């Protein structure tokens, strides 16, 4: 795909930032990005283990269901997981599973048995335990890779959205769930955004992925994007408790997909904290 890079900053933090004119352009580039990672993963490991999030993310997967990807990708090697789920029934309008099924999975030939949804028929505590157990089984047989650094699952790709408060998956600012080091999957019962009960990957799992993409649009995200990618470590803006900032792959690659509005605060970064590669397409 032809790309033009308009501005490049010396990267200090380990990420790439792609800025687009419209959601449609994000969708186009994201499809190519996912397709390339899927092909590499299938070639190298025989599988493609991808974790999705809920919310608006599925609306960016439309191009992946169309030509050429619907014909060229080896969908039989895809394994689908969720980085978080809201504690609602699978047929509820707010179910991440339902949103993803209707907007993506039903449109591509991924084998039914490769879709690992989170149990909606248990307490959030039990659902988190079950999901972690299931992931452990799949790590053992290497359907999901393993991080050599910490034995965490190494998903080929984790796709995240970000809220205006900087939350990713169901990890919210200042929430104790952000501190978990040994759990892979946890639950919360006090989400500041409804519904209150949710199941979520922990930061060690997110950060162990080979590839992480954060897709974020809208000017309400501009401040969180700025705090997440800046090098500020002191002062009132020090974003140590911002979940999106804590997404720091240990051995993988992080790419931000932003529209111009979400990227608008990046323009004000000066040379001292211009800490990212910025490309406009
Ligand atoms: O799980 C949820 O309750 C939300 O859907 C959430 O995680 C969402 O991804 C962000 O809030 C970004 O959503 P917007 O880009 O639509 O603001």
TrEMBL record:
Catalytic activity, reaction form: 6-phospho-D-glucono-1,5-lactone + H2O = 6-phospho-D-gluconate + H(+)
The record's listing under Pfam families reads: Glucosamine_iso
Domain of life of the source: Eukaryota
UniProt pathway annotation: Carbohydrate degradation; pentose phosphate pathway; D-ribulose 5-phosphate from D-glucose 6-phosphate (oxidative stage): step 2/3
| EC number(s) recorded for this UniProt protein | 3.1.1.31
What enzyme class is recorded for this protein? Answer: hydrolase
Sample GO molecular function, one term: 6-phosphogluconolactonase activity
The residues covered by the Glucosamine/galactosamine-6-phosphate isomerase domain are 22-256
Q: Name one GO cellular component term.
A: cytoplasm
Q: What GO biological process, any one, is recorded here?
A: pentose-phosphate shunt
InterPro entries the UniProt entry points to? 6-phosphogluconolactonase_DevB, 6PGL, Glc/Gal-6P_isomerase, NagB/RpiA_transferase-like
Would the keyword Hydrolase be found if you checked this record's keyword annotation? yes
Keyword annotations from UniProtKB, A to Z: Hydrolase
Q: Which family does it belong to?
A: Belongs to the glucosamine/galactosamine-6-phosphate isomerase family. 6-phosphogluconolactonase subfamily.
What PANTHER family does the record point to?
Answer: 6-PHOSPHOGLUCONOLACTONASE, 6-PHOSPHOGLUCONOLACTONASE 2-RELATED
Described function: Hydrolysis of 6-phosphogluconolactone to 6-phosphogluconate.
**What is the official name of this protein in its record?**
Probable 6-phosphogluconolactonase
Species of origin = Sorghum bicolor
């Amino acid at each position: 795909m032809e790309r033009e890079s308009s501005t490049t900053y010396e990267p200090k933090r380990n990420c790439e930032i792609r800025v687009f004119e419209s959601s449609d352009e994000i969708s186009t580039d994201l499809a190519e990005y996912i397709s390339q990672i899927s092909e590499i993963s299938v070639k190298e490991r025989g599988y493609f283990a991808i974790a999705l999030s809920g919310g608006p993310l599925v609306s960016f997967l439309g191009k992946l269901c169309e030509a050429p990807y619907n014909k060229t990708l080896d969908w039989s090697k895809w394994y689908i997981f969720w980085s978080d789920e809201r504690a609602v029934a699978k047929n509820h309008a707010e179910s991440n599973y339902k949103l993803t099924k209707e907007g993506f999975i039903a449109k591509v030939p991924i084998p039914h048995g490769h879709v690992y949804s989170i149990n909606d028929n248990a307490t959030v505590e039990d659902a988190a335990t079950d999901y972690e157990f299931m992931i452990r089984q799949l790590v053992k047989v290497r359907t999901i890779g393993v991080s050599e650094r910490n034995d965490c699952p190494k998903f080929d790709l984790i796709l995240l959205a970000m809220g205006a408060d900087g939350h990713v998956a169901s990890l919210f600012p200042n929430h104790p769930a952000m501190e978990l080091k040994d759990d892979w999957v946890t639950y919360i019962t006090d989400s500041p955004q409804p519904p209150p009960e949710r199941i979520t990957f922990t930061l060690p799992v997110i950060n162990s992925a080979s590839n992480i993409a954060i897709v974020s649009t809208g000017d309400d995200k501009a401040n969180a994007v700025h705090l997440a990618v800046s090098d500020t470590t002191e002062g009132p803006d020090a974003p140590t408790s911002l979940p999106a900032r804590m997404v720091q792959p240990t051995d993988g690659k992080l790419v931000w997909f932003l529209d111009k509005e979400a990227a608008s605060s990046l323009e004000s970064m000066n040379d001292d904290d211009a800490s990212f590669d910025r490309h406009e397409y």
